[in-house]
Amino acid sequence: MTTTSERVAGSRARQASQRVSQSVFDGSRLRVVLLVDVYDGAQQQFLEAYEQLCNQVASVPGHVSDQLCQSIENPSQWLITSEWESAPPFLAWVNSEEHVAMVEPLHSCVRDTRSLRFHVVRETGGPAAAPDQAKRRLQTSPRIGDGVIRHALTFTVKPGSEEIVAKILADYASPEPQVDDTTRLCRTSLFMHGNRVVRAIEVRGDLLSALRHVSRQPEVRAVEEAINPHLEQDRDLNDPESARVFFTRAALPAVHHVTAERQDAQAERYALHYPTRPDRGMKLAELLARQDEAAADDPRSPVLRSTIFQRDDVVVRLIDVRGGLEAADPVQALGLSDPGQVAELTTLQDDAAGASASKEGRLARFLELARMDLVTDRRSPDA
Questions:
Q1: pLDDT tens readout for residues 136-169
Q2: How distant, in Å, are the alpha carbons of 44, 60, 138, 220, 330 from that of 102?
Q3: 373: which strand partners?
Q4: Are 356 and 368 spatial neighbours (Cβ–Cβ below 8 Å)?
Q5: pLDDT tens digits, residue range 98-143?
Q6: What does the DSSP assignment read for 92-131?
């Protein structure tokens, strides 16, 4: 019997739709660039911390190599590059608690960091230049994006506080959308599923600048302070280290985005939360990505845009649906065409005891269980 995981793994070589503007599932090699600004006089401490980290990361599955460089103009500026077999093993590591513990020694000697991730599209020289290897490990073609960066944050609140938190998160004034001459906030969509909060943002320009801009807005800081007592993970926003750890754990990266050629300005936005079985989050995200690629090419599909966010076993799919979710085919809206796929990768089957015995009835029930509650969906003018 062929499992969902085997079918997904076997599909990686398939060329992605040109409508896919973002994906970590190409199977191509990944280059990670970390720009580091070290405190004056802390270079030796930084080197010692890097050596320790380097020894640990060498044993991480999917890691190929890394390189440390120092600026010839400013000794406090460093560059760390690493190569990975593909994006999924890197993301599995960088989003883990193991990684949080690994990098902790670096933070006492580092003023600022910036991480950039790139698929390798072309390469000259070296062993990867061999035709077979290049075909297997390099991205086949560059993607054509829409100029929008998508990111999300997720955290949980104490059971029983959901209604209070939802009201706090819905009743704040929107921050100024224009960050600087090149960066603008486009849209913020906030959903809840039980005690889990997901805040998805869309930005034109620089994501890091936008996140820093939002965090400094008085109205946003007031909301963050108001929900502090209700969070399951304690944090102190006045303590940079506490805030850093919280938002590191809260980051929910976008791993796939596809936009159909057909569009509808009246399309409605929904979010679906897929409670995954242990260690199945990446497999589920990849399966959803492949099925959303196919849906983008199907004129009958009501799903016009799909963004999949995944971190560990948290998988959230943000969709824009023509005609609303109630009128949509539950198979297309859920992104899973077989109850067997649902049972293998999620716990939705466990939560749907007593649902209709028909395939369509079960999938409709799974869609109902996965649907998140909308708290607020805000677009900036001229977004």
A1: 477 777 788 888 999 999 999 999 999 999 999 9
A2: 18, 12, 29, 31, 42
A3: 192
A4: no
A5: 888 888 888 889 998 999 999 998 887 765 555 544 444 777 777 8
A6: HHHTSHHHHHHHHHHHTTEEEEEEEEEE-----SSGGGSH
